[in-house]
Amino acid sequence: MLNFFNSNPTVTNCTFSGNSAEDGGGMFNFDNSSPMVTNCNFSGNSAAGSGGGMFNFENSSPTVANCAFVANAAFLLGGGMNNVDYSSPTVINCAFVENSALVGGGGMTNSDNSSPLVTNCTFSGNQAASRGGGMYNRDYSDPTLENCTFSGNSAYIGGGMHNFGECSPVVTNCTFSGNWAGNWGGGMFNYYLSNPALLNCLFTANSANEGGGIYNGKSSPALSNCTMSNNLATTGGAMFSFGTNSVPSNATLRNCVVYFNSADGIFDDPDSTTTISYSDVEGGWPGTGNIDADPMFVAPGNGDYRLSAGSPCIDAANNWGVPVDVNDYDEDGVTNELFPVDLDGNPRFNADENDFDPGCGVPVVVDMGAYEYQFDPVEDVIFADLNGDGSVGVVDLLGLLGGWGPCAKGCCLADLDLDGAVGYLDLSLLLANWD
Question: Taking a C-beta distance cutoff of 8 angstroms, is the pair 130, 102 a contact?
Answer without folding.
Answer: yes
